[in-house]
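Issue 218. Parser rejects a valid record. Input:
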Amino acid sequence: VYTRTAVIDQLFSYGTVPTADTPLLLGWRSGSVVNVDLYGETPNRVGDALYIISLGISLDANQVFANQSMRRTVVATDASQAWGDQNGLYLSHGTMTVENRPISFSGTFNASLLEIALTQGDITSLIGKGGFIEPLPADEQPDQADPATNGSAQPTPTPDPNATLDPNATPIPPGKPGGGPVPAPMPFGLPALQLFDHVSQLWVEFPAFNPSVPHRISNPERYVDNAGTVLMRFVNRAEAGQFGEEQVYFQLATRIEGTIE
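Output the parser choked on:
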């Protein structure tokens, strides 16, 4: 029992939700897998074999994907620290592109709802009732290739906590070399959210999310492709300080609704 438990813990990360797209049937077979013969000896054959069989599933035409039926993969980043685990996402100054998709299915998905929430430790259940949210106006959209700095000054190092301030020094404006951080780099302690618009083929940024507040994205068909996949880009514009002040760990909740044809 101990050996089998150890194998299961390794395969499924100590009790977390499996990442398989279908239910799995697990079966054990006792006995040695490889026969061993020793001349003049009777070897003690001990072994366990685990068989994992993927079971088929069928989905209704009208479908909702959320929570355990969603999968996410970090596909690109320009940040020094960017990764995801079963519980959340971690991002330092820069960007991180995440592919968020439902379990595999056959057919074409036509999205009618896309709901998103960003949290920092709270558990948020999405029920499709969040307020609608539109992208930022075109003149407020950041640079497509470099949304983290968007032409602002380079990050400044964290000041020495033991330094003595000169009371006669001229203050340096925010955003200038040696000055303070650009105002409001990460509102509410969360990175900015961008979605890839399949119509315009551009990244579009949305207003800052409040923690744990769900939002329904207007015109979801622009951002959810025929496989139900949503491309998200998170942008952390906070200063890359000496002590990691800009690093943020957050959770992503997604719900999509639509029909499968």
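Fixed in the parser; the record now loads. The CA atoms of residues 159 and 242 lie 8 Å apart.
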